[in-house]
């Protein structure tokens, strides 16, 4: 089982009501011609938050109202690029938004992701992106 990393952020824009965090692997899309893989989507993170702790527990809804989903269910899904292939560009995107959403954590991560991003369209105040390279050791 994968353990989510500790994340911290600062310089939050005024008017931020909540955050949306997306962790994805865009290289899978390039390799298979499909949409990229949603490794973790967390939304409704309170606007006063300055990060997420290491090891966010499994579950569709957290005590602070945040919700989460991944390709494997309501949990973090870590990187998994094979050792024999190229490094993958894992991307973390953090959105500061001026609203919260009532989107439930659905069983399908891609549908949930589409619904969350439709709900925050026009509400994004700022976006931060971090890209890291990873593949398993042999």
Shape: globular
Unreliable stretches (pLDDT < 50, length at least 5) are: none
Query: What order do the strands of the largest sheet run in, or round the barrel if closed?
Result: 5-3-2-6-7
Number of strands: 7
SS element count, helices:
2
Structural class: alpha+beta
The percentage of residues in β strands lies in: 25-35%
Averaged pLDDT: 88
N-to-C SSE string, H for helix and E for strand: EEHEEEEHE
Helical content band: 10-25%
Radius of gyration, in Å, reads 15 Å
Spatial separation of the terminal alpha carbons: 19 Å
For the sheet with most strands, the description reads:
5 strands, antiparallel
Highlighted features:
alpha+beta; globular; 5-stranded antiparallel β-sheet; 7 strands; 138 residues; two-stranded antiparallel ribbon; single chain; 2 helices
Question: Can you walk me through this structure?
Answer:
With 138 residues, the protein is α+β, with helices and mostly antiparallel strands. Helix content is 14%, strand content 33%. It contains 2 helices and 7 strands; from the N terminus they run E-E-H-E-E-E-E-H-E. The chain has helices at 26-32, 109-120; strands spanning 7-8, 18-25, 37-46, 51-52, 67-69, 88-97, 124-134. The strands form 2 sheets. It has a 5-stranded antiparallel sheet. The protein has a two-stranded antiparallel sheet with strand order 1-4. The protein is globular. The model has no long low-confidence stretch (mean pLDDT 88).
């Amino acid at each position: 089982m994968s353990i989510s990393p500790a994340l911290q952020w600062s310089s939050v824009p005024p008017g931020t009501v909540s955050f949306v965090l997306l962790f994805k692997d865009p290289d899978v899309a390039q390799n298979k011609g499909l949409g990229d893989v949603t490794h973790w989507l967390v939304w409704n993170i309170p606007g006063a938050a300055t990060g997420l702790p290491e090891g966010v527990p499994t579950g569709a809804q957290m005590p602070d109202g945040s919700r989460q989903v991944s390709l494997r269910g309501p949990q973090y899904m870590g990187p998994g690029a094979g050792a024999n292939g190229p490094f993958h560009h894992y991307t973390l995107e953090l959105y500061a938004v001026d609203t919260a959403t009532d989107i439930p954590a659905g069983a399908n991560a891609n549908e949930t992701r589409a619904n969350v991003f439709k709900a925050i369209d026009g509400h994004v105040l700022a976006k931060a992106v971090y890209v890291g390279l990873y593949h398993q050791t042999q």
